[in-house]
Specification:
single chain; alpha+beta; Thiol Ester Dehydrase, Chain A; 4 strands; Acyl-CoA thioesterase; long-chain fatty acyl-CoA hydrolase activity; Cytosol_ACT; HOTDOG_ACOT
Length: 151
């Protein structure tokens, strides 16, 4: 943009693309974003800086996957990278006809995995109670009746 910074919408596009790759590689199917929330822009991402986009699976339900995405950037002449943006995206696996399909259960291994998994479950509960910030009805209904939840 005119200030030498990457537009937030471009960064959000990178987040969506990274979440898609992470989800589809994990489940072996196509995936579609059904929710993105908690987008946090910590600092500007400068044009010309090196960019790293890391997408990480943090929770699975029966058909959905929560993907945490961190965007980092840094001066190409330096070695440091700074966190610039964070987002949690929910992706649902789908078949060739566009129908949602089950995904393999993901089990957290490390302490950080367990912390992120618990955070994703907390956010699910909050979204389930917030009428203006809900997942699609078929996912909410399934989440309430299934101990693994849809997303």
């Amino acid at each position: 943009n005119w200030g030498g910074k990457v537009h937030g919408g471009i960064v959000m596009k990178w987040i969506d693309e990274a979440a898609y790759v992470c989800a589809s590689r994990y489940c072996g199917n196509d995936a579609v974003a059904v929710f993105s929330g908690g987008v946090r822009f910590y600092r500007p991402l400068l044009i010309g800086h090196v960019v790293e986009v890391e997408a990480r699976l943090v929770y699975t339900g029966t058909k959905g996957m929560h993907i945490a995405v961190h965007v980092r950037s840094g001066d190409p002449k330096g070695r440091g990278m700074n966190l610039t943006t964070y987002c949690l995206t929910v992706m649902v696996a789908r078949d060739d006809a566009g129908n949602s399909v089950p995904v393999p259960a993901w089990v957290p291994v490390s302490e950080e995995d367990r912390r992120l998994h618990a955070h994703a479950r907390d956010l699910l509960e909050i979204r389930g109670r917030a009428p203006g910030n809900r997942l699609p009805n078929h996912l909410v209904a399934s989440w309430k009746s299934d101990t693994r939840h849809d997303c």
